[in-house]
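Notebook entry, structure prediction.
Reason for the run: the old model in the group folder had no record of what sequence produced it. Starting over properly, with the input documented here first.
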Amino acid sequence: MSKKKHGHRQGGPRNTQAPRPAAPPATPATPAAPPTAVAPAPAEAAPAPVEVAAPAPVEVTPVEAAQIAPAPAEAAPPPAEVAPARAPARAPARAERIAIVAGLRTPFQKQGTGFRALSTVDLATLVVSELLQRSGVKASEISLCVYGQVVPTLDWLNIAREVVLRAGLPRSVEAYSVSRACATSIQAMTSAAESMLAGQHEVALVGGADSMSDVPLGLSRALRDALLKAQKGRTPIEKLQAFRALKPRDLVPPIPGFSREPTTGEQMGEAAEKMAKENQIARSWQDEIALASHRNAARAWADGTYREEVMTVLAPPFREAVGEDNIVRSDTTLDALARLKPAFDRAHGTITAGNSSPLTDGASALLLMSESRARALGHRPLGFLTSWAYAAVDPAWQLLMGPVFAAPRALDRAGLSLQDMALVDMHEAFAAQVASNIQAIESDAFCQRHLGRPALGQIDRERLNVNGGSIALGHPFAATGGRMVLSTLRELRKRGGQHALLTLCAAGGLGAAVVLENGDA
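New structure, fully documented this time:
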């Protein structure tokens, strides 16, 4: 089966004029807030520990009080103010922050290149094993592993548990897998944080991996049925007879279903093309975003920024070591990008292979600790997870606009504003999506109409994706969030900034946003 770098051809709209933005979607459901408020008040000098609002004491009604305490000799009048009982009662929250103490990723390799012989679980095992060696954290300290992959496989059911068993962690470590499309490793991090804030764990391993070189291909229904029938045959003749009714077309593997939105039938590139048209995003702006991504990533490799964040992998057939991302183009230009043909709407489109993220293999991992545990073990945190939020929009509207709805929630929960962010790191699925997200965040009209609030403010382009993004570095779906957290925290420390905002769009109309704090600020 032939493979294409960025999806399959589609008929698509043929309008030559960009339409006005479509009507707003139905108001997206508000995702549940994290179980414990973790947003600190903004710091003036040295940051104070995150103030975690403790739940109010559980108060009970007189009837409930009578059920749990002996009645007094003489009936006493009920208290003047008795709040309704809150169930279930919880232990008081601790004023504890979640520290990210270490992180690592593999190089990101274009599909079918350096990591073509490695599976998703191979990549995950490699990065986790190396992270444990480099961090100095004893495997025995870890009690939870939350790991994810986006592209499913039939070879294992729970990649998190496989990582525990293959990377040398104690067999007693709890493990479960998560998937939130392109925000999977963010989900892994926040799910672990919730368990830690609930007092269930103090040290957790989180992350995600994907191999687009090892995508499982399905079978046609006819071939599947024939294979099942052949298994039941008692003789070679009976087994062969199971295949008599097959036609040549039955032997062609179907296109994996995850390449399109199930409810709309659109490929993500087609949805991004629609966003570009509805939001009137010029091709020139998209190419400028792509150029900045490549230039910043090339500079970050040249000046050594990525050296301590990226491990070296000796991949089969073990002829050479893979130590750098192989998608970054230090020599690309606007002219070169402008010459590329549209990938989805061939006649009138603006999305090309050059301003889109490519299919990529890679893995990332982070080590989380409660702040008190990190201090007790002598670890200097890279930073802290201050707040997070998720959001969702109708996939039939603007599929990749979820971050615009998640970002203000994360900022509000942190008690901060966009102007407080020393860095903004925005996942680059497509340059059209980045431009659409920026335009919406900065638009009073959009924010009033869809968020019921003024615009978040202007994003300083000098603080945006300063070390490149997914267009240049690549995008192994489940690994990208971990890459962003690690790189952003290291850059915050380098610059002496205090807070950063991360945003990610994801399939299904999902969006994620995270506010991070410098461990040294």
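Summary: The longest strand covers residues 360-370.
The old model has been moved to the deprecated folder.
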